[in-house]
Automatic annotation (TrEMBL):
It comes from the Bacteria. It is found in: Membrane. InterPro entries: K_chnl_dom, VG_K_chnl, Volt_channel_dom_sf. This is Voltage-gated potassium channel.
Length: 229
Protein backbone atom coordinates (compact mmCIF):
# COMPACT_ATOMS: atom_id res chain seq x y z
CA UNK A 1 0.00 0.00 0.00
CA UNK A 2 2.82 2.39 0.85
CA UNK A 3 4.56 1.66 -2.43
CA UNK A 4 1.33 2.33 -4.34
CA UNK A 5 0.91 5.65 -2.53
CA UNK A 6 4.47 6.64 -3.41
CA UNK A 7 3.96 5.69 -7.05
CA UNK A 8 0.86 7.86 -7.21
CA UNK A 9 2.81 10.84 -5.96
CA UNK A 10 5.59 10.27 -8.48
CA UNK A 11 3.08 10.02 -11.32
CA UNK A 12 1.30 13.14 -10.08
CA UNK A 13 4.59 15.03 -9.85
CA UNK A 14 5.64 14.02 -13.38
CA UNK A 15 2.17 14.74 -14.80
CA UNK A 16 2.00 18.24 -13.30
CA UNK A 17 5.64 19.21 -13.90
CA UNK A 18 5.19 20.87 -17.28
CA UNK A 19 1.67 22.28 -16.70
CA UNK A 20 2.83 23.94 -13.47
CA UNK A 21 5.87 25.33 -15.29
CA UNK A 22 3.65 26.79 -18.02
CA UNK A 23 1.42 28.35 -15.37
CA UNK A 24 4.50 29.80 -13.69
CA UNK A 25 5.64 31.28 -17.02
CA UNK A 26 2.22 32.87 -17.54
CA UNK A 27 2.37 34.18 -14.00
CA UNK A 28 5.83 35.61 -14.76
CA UNK A 29 4.52 37.54 -17.75
CA UNK A 30 1.51 38.99 -15.93
CA UNK A 31 3.47 39.74 -12.77
CA UNK A 32 6.21 41.49 -14.76
CA UNK A 33 3.57 43.55 -16.56
CA UNK A 34 1.94 44.58 -13.29
CA UNK A 35 5.20 45.43 -11.52
CA UNK A 36 6.97 47.24 -14.35
CA UNK A 37 3.82 49.20 -15.21
CA UNK A 38 3.38 49.93 -11.49
CA UNK A 39 -0.29 49.03 -11.67
CA UNK A 40 -2.45 49.09 -8.57
CA UNK A 41 -5.45 46.80 -7.93
CA UNK A 42 -7.78 49.75 -8.56
CA UNK A 43 -6.25 50.43 -12.00
CA UNK A 44 -6.82 47.07 -13.70
CA UNK A 45 -8.55 44.18 -11.93
CA UNK A 46 -7.91 41.20 -14.24
CA UNK A 47 -4.15 40.79 -13.53
CA UNK A 48 -4.80 40.53 -9.80
CA UNK A 49 -7.60 38.03 -10.43
CA UNK A 50 -5.30 35.96 -12.64
CA UNK A 51 -2.48 35.94 -10.09
CA UNK A 52 -4.92 34.98 -7.35
CA UNK A 53 -6.10 32.08 -9.50
CA UNK A 54 -2.50 30.95 -10.00
CA UNK A 55 -1.97 31.11 -6.24
CA UNK A 56 -5.03 28.89 -5.73
CA UNK A 57 -3.72 26.37 -8.28
CA UNK A 58 -0.34 26.14 -6.54
CA UNK A 59 -2.03 25.81 -3.15
CA UNK A 60 -4.18 22.93 -4.45
CA UNK A 61 -1.10 21.31 -5.97
CA UNK A 62 0.59 21.45 -2.58
CA UNK A 63 -2.39 19.85 -0.83
CA UNK A 64 -2.71 17.04 -3.38
CA UNK A 65 1.03 16.35 -3.19
CA UNK A 66 0.86 16.17 0.60
CA UNK A 67 -2.01 13.68 0.40
CA UNK A 68 -0.31 11.42 -2.15
CA UNK A 69 3.22 11.36 -0.76
CA UNK A 70 4.27 8.34 1.32
CA UNK A 71 6.22 9.99 4.14
CA UNK A 72 4.07 13.04 4.82
CA UNK A 73 6.05 14.22 7.83
CA UNK A 74 9.35 14.25 5.98
CA UNK A 75 7.84 15.80 2.85
CA UNK A 76 6.12 18.46 4.93
CA UNK A 77 9.34 19.60 6.64
CA UNK A 78 11.36 19.48 3.41
CA UNK A 79 8.77 21.58 1.57
CA UNK A 80 8.10 24.32 4.11
CA UNK A 81 8.93 26.92 1.47
CA UNK A 82 6.03 25.68 -0.66
CA UNK A 83 3.73 25.82 2.36
CA UNK A 84 4.79 29.41 3.03
CA UNK A 85 4.15 30.35 -0.60
CA UNK A 86 0.74 28.70 -0.44
CA UNK A 87 -0.29 30.47 2.77
CA UNK A 88 1.27 33.93 2.32
CA UNK A 89 0.06 35.84 -0.73
CA UNK A 90 3.05 38.24 -0.75
CA UNK A 91 5.31 35.26 -1.44
CA UNK A 92 3.48 34.36 -4.66
CA UNK A 93 6.32 35.61 -6.91
CA UNK A 94 8.57 32.93 -5.42
CA UNK A 95 6.41 30.37 -7.21
CA UNK A 96 8.50 31.27 -10.24
CA UNK A 97 11.38 29.36 -8.65
CA UNK A 98 9.47 26.23 -9.66
CA UNK A 99 10.97 26.87 -13.10
CA UNK A 100 14.30 25.75 -11.64
CA UNK A 101 12.83 22.26 -11.41
CA UNK A 102 12.58 22.16 -15.19
CA UNK A 103 16.38 22.20 -15.33
CA UNK A 104 16.28 18.61 -14.10
CA UNK A 105 14.52 17.76 -17.36
CA UNK A 106 16.56 20.01 -19.62
CA UNK A 107 19.87 18.75 -18.25
CA UNK A 108 19.28 15.48 -20.11
CA UNK A 109 20.09 17.32 -23.34
CA UNK A 110 23.38 18.58 -21.92
CA UNK A 111 25.07 15.20 -22.15
CA UNK A 112 26.32 12.98 -19.40
CA UNK A 113 29.26 15.20 -18.44
CA UNK A 114 28.91 16.56 -14.93
CA UNK A 115 30.30 19.91 -16.00
CA UNK A 116 27.61 20.30 -18.65
CA UNK A 117 24.85 19.66 -16.12
CA UNK A 118 26.39 21.99 -13.53
CA UNK A 119 26.80 24.76 -16.13
CA UNK A 120 23.17 24.41 -17.17
CA UNK A 121 21.94 24.47 -13.57
CA UNK A 122 24.08 27.46 -12.63
CA UNK A 123 23.18 29.51 -15.71
CA UNK A 124 19.48 28.71 -15.55
CA UNK A 125 19.18 29.18 -11.80
CA UNK A 126 21.12 32.45 -11.90
CA UNK A 127 18.89 33.86 -14.62
CA UNK A 128 15.69 32.88 -12.84
CA UNK A 129 16.91 34.20 -9.49
CA UNK A 130 17.99 37.54 -10.96
CA UNK A 131 14.67 38.01 -12.75
CA UNK A 132 12.51 36.96 -9.79
CA UNK A 133 14.53 39.05 -7.33
CA UNK A 134 14.43 42.07 -9.65
CA UNK A 135 10.65 41.93 -10.00
CA UNK A 136 10.14 41.18 -6.31
CA UNK A 137 12.33 43.98 -5.01
CA UNK A 138 10.85 46.47 -7.51
CA UNK A 139 7.35 45.47 -6.39
CA UNK A 140 8.34 46.02 -2.76
CA UNK A 141 10.34 49.22 -3.24
CA UNK A 142 9.03 51.38 -6.06
CA UNK A 143 6.20 52.97 -4.05
CA UNK A 144 7.98 53.06 -0.69
CA UNK A 145 9.06 56.32 0.90
CA UNK A 146 12.78 56.98 0.50
CA UNK A 147 13.26 54.09 -1.94
CA UNK A 148 16.10 54.27 -4.46
CA UNK A 149 15.06 51.27 -6.59
CA UNK A 150 12.41 52.90 -8.74
CA UNK A 151 12.76 51.26 -12.15
CA UNK A 152 13.24 47.78 -13.58
CA UNK A 153 16.73 48.74 -14.76
CA UNK A 154 17.67 49.73 -11.19
CA UNK A 155 16.24 46.45 -9.89
CA UNK A 156 18.15 44.31 -12.40
CA UNK A 157 21.39 46.17 -11.66
CA UNK A 158 20.84 45.69 -7.92
CA UNK A 159 20.12 41.98 -8.40
CA UNK A 160 23.31 41.40 -10.41
CA UNK A 161 25.41 43.34 -7.91
CA UNK A 162 23.88 41.42 -5.01
CA UNK A 163 24.00 37.90 -6.44
CA UNK A 164 27.67 38.33 -7.35
CA UNK A 165 28.35 39.62 -3.79
CA UNK A 166 29.96 42.78 -5.21
CA UNK A 167 27.75 45.12 -3.22
CA UNK A 168 28.40 48.61 -4.62
CA UNK A 169 25.70 50.07 -2.39
CA UNK A 170 24.37 52.54 -4.98
CA UNK A 171 20.98 50.80 -4.84
CA UNK A 172 19.60 49.02 -1.80
CA UNK A 173 16.18 48.04 -0.40
CA UNK A 174 14.62 50.07 2.40
CA UNK A 175 11.51 47.98 3.10
CA UNK A 176 11.35 44.85 5.20
CA UNK A 177 10.16 42.68 2.31
CA UNK A 178 12.85 44.11 0.03
CA UNK A 179 15.55 43.31 2.57
CA UNK A 180 14.17 39.78 2.99
CA UNK A 181 14.48 39.30 -0.78
CA UNK A 182 18.03 40.65 -0.58
CA UNK A 183 18.99 38.12 2.10
CA UNK A 184 17.69 35.25 -0.01
CA UNK A 185 19.57 36.53 -3.05
CA UNK A 186 22.80 36.92 -1.06
CA UNK A 187 22.64 33.35 0.22
CA UNK A 188 21.85 32.08 -3.27
CA UNK A 189 24.75 34.09 -4.68
CA UNK A 190 27.22 32.47 -2.29
CA UNK A 191 25.99 29.00 -3.30
CA UNK A 192 26.18 29.81 -7.02
CA UNK A 193 29.68 31.24 -6.75
CA UNK A 194 30.76 28.04 -5.01
CA UNK A 195 29.31 26.00 -7.88
CA UNK A 196 31.07 28.14 -10.48
CA UNK A 197 34.38 27.88 -8.62
CA UNK A 198 34.10 24.10 -8.35
CA UNK A 199 33.25 23.81 -12.06
CA UNK A 200 36.22 25.94 -13.11
CA UNK A 201 38.52 24.01 -10.78
CA UNK A 202 37.45 20.68 -12.28
CA UNK A 203 38.02 22.09 -15.78
CA UNK A 204 41.57 23.22 -14.91
CA UNK A 205 42.37 19.86 -13.30
CA UNK A 206 41.13 18.01 -16.37
CA UNK A 207 43.15 20.22 -18.74
CA UNK A 208 46.30 19.74 -16.67
CA UNK A 209 45.78 15.97 -16.68
CA UNK A 210 45.35 16.00 -20.47
CA UNK A 211 48.51 18.09 -20.90
CA UNK A 212 50.54 15.70 -18.77
CA UNK A 213 49.14 12.68 -20.60
CA UNK A 214 50.05 13.86 -24.12
CA UNK A 215 53.88 13.67 -23.72
CA UNK A 216 53.55 10.20 -22.20
CA UNK A 217 51.51 9.00 -25.18
CA UNK A 218 53.98 10.52 -27.67
CA UNK A 219 56.93 8.80 -25.96
CA UNK A 220 55.24 5.43 -26.34
CA UNK A 221 55.49 2.45 -24.00
CA UNK A 222 58.80 1.98 -22.13
CA UNK A 223 61.26 -0.35 -23.86
CA UNK A 224 61.95 -3.70 -22.24
CA UNK A 225 65.52 -4.39 -21.08
CA UNK A 226 67.52 -6.78 -23.26
CA UNK A 227 67.69 -10.33 -21.91
CA UNK A 228 71.03 -11.60 -20.65
CA UNK A 229 73.01 -13.75 -23.12
Amino acid sequence: MLQTSESRYERWDRFTEWPMAVIALLFLGIYAYVVISNLRPTDVSWPQAFMTGVWVIFALHYVVSLVLVQNRRRWFFTHLHELAMALLPFLRPLQLLRLVKLLSVLHKTAGSALRGRVTLYVAGTSGILVLVASLGVLDAEQNAEGANINSFADAVWWAFVTITTVGYGDHYPVTGLGRLIAVGLMVSGIALIGSVTATLASWFVEKIAETQQEPAEEAGPPSEPASAQ
